[in-house]
Amino acid sequence: MSTTQMLQANDERRLLVQRVILAKPERIFDAWTKPQLLSQWWGPEHVTCTSAEIDLCVGGHYRIENQMADGSTVLINGVFEQIDRPRKLVYSWSTTSESIPCERVTIYFESREEATQISIIHENIPTPELVTSHSAGWEGCLDGLIRFLEH
């Protein structure tokens, strides 16, 4: 089951995406933080993760390269702010090299017996159009994660 909420308060655009996945938090956390695993499932339909680099430590950088359906490339990069394996990740999110305020992603991995509830909070999204785009992107990524974990 999936829920998505678009939240807006005081001009801060936020997105909450939740999904319960039949896998333990440790397995999902590893799939999210190990480049060789992340590159196998990351991205919504028609998007391919062509490269993933992850320095999993507070202050460590990550870089994800996505090839879009039209052949263009989108780079997502940021810095890890909090790491609490296997319960929580917090990192900045940027798709530009410009010095604009970064978006922030917080992910909670909550154990539910044999399953895990994933709660993704994506904050500081600059425009309503990007909120909608990120919503579709996160839903697609979670679909890909489920397919990956089923193998």
Fold and architecture overview:
This protein is an alpha+beta fold. The chain has one domain: START domain (Alpha-D-Glucose-1,6-Bisphosphate, Chain A, domain 4), CATH 3.30.530.20. Helix content is 26%, strand content 46%. The chain contains 3 helices and 8 strands. 21% of the residues are buried.
Labels describing this entry:
eight-stranded antiparallel sheet; globular; alpha+beta; Alpha-D-Glucose-1,6-Bisphosphate, Chain A, domain 4; 26% helix; 151 residues
Instruction: Predict the CATH topology.
Output: Alpha-D-Glucose-1,6-Bisphosphate, Chain A, domain 4
Supply the CATH architecture: 2-Layer Sandwich
Provide the gyration radius in Å.
Answer: 15 Å
Q: Provide the low-confidence segments as ranges.
A: none
Instruction: Count all strands and give the number.
Output: 8
H-E string: EEHHEEEEEEH
User: How many discrete structural domains?
Assistant: 1
